[in-house]
Amino acid sequence: MSFLCESYNQRFASLFKKGLLSGLIFLTCFYTSAQTEFPNEFIMHVRLHSGMITYKKPAADIFVGGLQLVPQATLIEHTLRGGIIAGGFYTNKDIHGLLGPTISLKLTEFKGGFFGSLGNLHLNVDHLWGTDEQRLAGAGINLDLLNKLVVSLMAHRDYNLNHWWIQSGIAFRLSKVKQPKETFPN
Predict the structure, then answer these.
(1) Distance in angstroms (rounded) separating the CA atoms of residues 175 and 44
(2) Mean pLDDT of all residues in the chain?
(3) The model's pTM
(4) Position 19 confidence tier, pLDDT thresholds 50, 70, 90
(5) pLDDT exceeds cutoff 80 at 178
(6) Residue 8 DSSP SS3
(7) Closest by CA position to 45, among listed 177, 176, 178, 172
(8) Fewer beta carbons within 10 angstroms: which end of the chain, N or C?
(9) Which phi and psi (to 5°) does residue 121 adopt?
């Protein structure tokens, strides 16, 4: 009777190992074919943003809106991009500038079946210095659609002036999409 149990256990262990190995190979192939977002390239967006600056005082929140250029280069392919944000904004009847580093981490990619990737969801972290003593540190969540359009929601803390900036934005890609090299012989 113990002989039957040992034979069954050995057969089960062998099938389990083969199934586990096959599953890992399948997942590896699926994962590597899925990595089409954040390729190794330079990318430039122009972002239009608007939102509010909140105060601790019992006063109305102030509108803030502006335009930014966001050039980035891939640091870790399919995962991480870094660059700068340079732009201007309008608030409190005045125009100011902002400049600082930004880094984007891809969280997930949206598949489109035979059409490839529909886009990705990524997190960006920024540290910006303004021309009127603004010092902003914050993050945003971005939905990148078809590698052409980015919709974002951002929150920054002005640690110098003790304000919160809550903004939404829409960005359009300015740089050309890198065309894949042909793999077929001529």
Answers:
(1) 5
(2) 85
(3) 0.74
(4) low
(5) no
(6) helix
(7) 172
(8) C
(9) -115, 125
